[in-house]
Amino acid sequence: MLDLLCDIQNIKGIGKQKKEYFRNLNVFKLKDLIYFFPTKYLDYSQIIKIKDAQPGNINLVVKFNNIKEFRTKNHHLITQADCYDETAKLKVIWFDQSYRKKMLNPDIEYFLSGKLDLKYGSFSIISPTIESVQSPNINSGRIVPIYHQTKGLKSSDIRKIVYSLIQENELDQELLPNQILDQYNLLNINEALRNIHFPRNSEMLQRAKYRIDFENMFILNLSAILLKEENKLLSSYSIKFDLEHTKQFLEALPFELTDQQKIIIWQIIKDLQKAEPMNRLIEGDVGTGKTVIAICIAYIIIKNDFQVALMAPTEILARQHYKNIRSLFKNLGISKQVAFLSSSLTKNETQEIYQNLKDAKIKFIIGTHSLIQVDLKFKKLALVIIDEQHRFGVHQRQLLKQKSEFMPHLLSLSATPIPRSLALTLFHELKISKLSIKPIKVKSPKVIISSYFDYTKHITSIKKHLDNREQLIIVCRSIDSKLNDHYSIAKVQEQTKTFYPEFKVATIHGKMKTTLKTKIMDDFINRKIDILISTTIIEVGIDNPMATQIVIYESDKFGLAQLYQLKGRVGRHKLAGSCYLLFDPEKDNPKRLKILQSASNGFDVAEMDLKIRGPGSIYGIFQHGKNMDLRLSNINDLRLNKLTLEAAQDFYQKHNMIEYKTLLDKANDIKKIINLD
Questions:
Q1: Residue from 200, 44, 42, 198 nearest 113 by CA
Q2: Residue 621 confidence (pLDDT)
Q3: d(Cα 539, Cα 527) in Å, to the nearest integer?
Q4: Cα–Cα distance, 422 to 375 (Å, whole number)
Q5: Helix (H, G, I), strand (E, B) or coil at 21
Q6: For residue range 118-154, what is the model confidence (pLDDT) as tens digits?
Q7: Domain boundaries, the chain
């Protein structure tokens, strides 16, 4: 078998320069190249006779004669020839390809693929692809793979390198047991890989894709089964339900909970009464009241004399939670048991919090990554709340949960819903509660899709809102010029001051010091700033009633789910909001963005995003390495998911997994990635 871990530079046809080009495609090792699947295919396998040719793409087997060269008035070189078979002939033309006349051999046959069109008064084929019938045909006369290209590396270059590789006897080790291959009539891995790259025919291409999809989903489901069995061995604190404490909390709220919120609170209470760790996700749009549910549960935990940790992805969001929770708990008489931990605190302040947590004087700690510091110890940590949980790596979540004698219960909150198909595939051991009803009726911000050239037409409308003491958020993808100098924060700030000279403008981004970010956010919330220019650091965490307008530069470069989140930063209260999605009409197609104009909720957007961008766009789950190999998986195929789940369950029940070490190792690797416990 090939050494799949060898550096790509060691492969024939790839030198030092090409290695750098492949790096742009995230191809570093031989295995990366083997699993660098085509993005599409051109079917050049249907060979016809010239007499049957119709205008459009055609595939022929021909010989050439009457080969000649001449130059046009503007000095372009024309190579012209007649191609013919036993039925008829056609004119063929190439532009500025001086090697063509020398390479054409009148005595041999060629595969020819190209477009037949009416040009220069007669039917001809312009710049076709040709290959000798005597040589391996990789560019014509077959189903031809098309690969993602990058600067310095064309699809045809990749095709040539991959073709030479797949002639080897064995490309990768078989993971699926023989009984699975036989039972479900699957190609072995080497047949599948060869036919993914160079399919013998359309049927073998579909079988190859199905085999890869089956393996991915089978291993994902097997990983979930292993995870479930592992969790049966864990113990957590059992939390008693006290009706009076729950009533106290609900009466302290300035608003009435929806029936949906009350149902979810009761679901969680029942989970907490068990001595096994809860793993529940609350998902719902901005404004549906996820956080108040989490705080209610935290109050119940604290009243049972246990501790709670709330971890947020940004300090802005963590501080906002701390401020709101302290205010609410003040009315309940336990605000002194709530603390905020951040890297911006002094050493003495941090040490005091550490000691109070260890002594259980602090019952509710709120922070960011500072909560996973090695020196931080809890006395009785019973609940971990993670807000916008997809923004934390698995390792970070595990570190936080290890700070307890027993495995703490886990409650995750997210405004980016898991699409149903992904939930069934990756997270079917996770309990999911959905919130769709907002306690306060707020109209969703209007979405305006605009080219950069038309943006100035909307400035008058935006200014009317600013004159009304409302505020504007402008989002950029990059701080500096690494992605696009024209739309960096510095350039956009300069442009914005020109467009809105009478208003106060400020910028915020992740590289700023925490104290400065905090001051800017406070000034924005207190309306000392009219326009805030930011990176996606504000995707979560801003709850500003007066922020009603948002302009997003390079909107076509964002995922739909992320755009939906950004849109949710404005119009959150009584004032109506507007979201302007700017795109470059010369480079981008705004068709995808129109989904946001019709989507009524985040669940619809997440499903659309999954279909368009693939599973890697949801939760960043696949950032942990190439172990997933989900490049082709049709994760929306619920029928295949059901089939592979049944197959995995049956296999696990009937076999000793230790006997299948390679499969077990792979499943355990995936288990570490998908584990939301």
A1: 44
A2: 38
A3: 19
A4: 37
A5: helix
A6: 877 789 999 999 999 888 888 888 898 999 888 888 8
A7: 1-42+158-172, 46-141, 243-273+287-414, 446-599
Instruction: Please state which CATH number belongs to domain 446-599.
Output: 3.40.50.300
668 by Cβ neighbours in 10 Å (0-12 / 13-18 / 19+) ranks as: middle
Contact between 109 and 61 (Cβ < 8 Å): yes
- What's the confidence (pLDDT) of residue 668? 86
- Provide the mean pLDDT of the chain: 85
Nearest alpha-carbon partner for 300 in 340, 256, 387, 240: 240
Give me the torsion for CA of 301, 303, 308, 313, rounded to 10°: 90
Tokens representing 140?
């014509």
Q: Are 479 and 489 in contact (CB under 8 A)?
A: yes
Q: CA–CA separation, 166 vs 174, rounded Å?
A: 16
What's the farthest any 2 CA atoms get from each other in the chain? 97
Tokens of 188: 């072995």
How far is the C-alpha of 167 from the C-alpha of 364, rounded, in Å? Answer: 61
Q: Is the dihedral of CA 478, 483, 489, 493 positive or negative?
A: negative
Cβ within 8 Å of residue 153, ≥6 positions away: 18, 21, 22, 24, 25
Do domains 243-273+287-414 and 446-599 share one topology? The answer is yes
- Return the sign of the alpha-carbon dihedral for residues 515, 516, 522, 526: positive
Return the CATH fold of 243-273+287-414: Rossmann fold (3.40.50)
Q: How many CB atoms lie within 10 A of CB 387?
A: 25
The helix/strand/coil state of 654 is helix
- Rounded to the nearest angstrom, the gap between the alpha carbon of residue 512 and the centroid of all alpha carbons in its chain is 26
Sorted by sequence, the CB contacts under 8 Å of residue 307 that are 6+ apart come out as 301, 357, 360, 362, 363, 364, 365, 378, 379, 380, 381, 382, 383
pLDDT score of 424: 57
Separation of alpha carbons 367 and 385, rounded Å: 11
CATH code at 46-141: 2.40.50.140
CA distances from 570 to 476, 564, 577 (A): 16, 11, 6
Which residues of the chain, if any, have pLDDT below 50?
393-394, 616-629, 632, 676-677
Residue whose structure tokens are 């050239």? 453
- Give 282's Cβ-side CA count (13 Å radius): 29
CA 316, CA 322: separation in Å to the nearest integer? Answer: 10
Instruction: Single out the residue of 379, 376, 340, 374 nearest to residue 359, CA to CA.
Output: 379
Residue 624: what pLDDT?
37
Tokens 């890697």 sit on residue: 616
Contact status, residue 293 vs residue 260, Cβ threshold 8 Å: no
Helix (H) or strand (E) holding 89: strand 89-95
pLDDT at 496: 93
CA dist., res. 285 & res. 262, Å (int)? 17
User: What whole-number distance in Å separates Cα of residue 669 and Cα of residue 663?
Assistant: 10
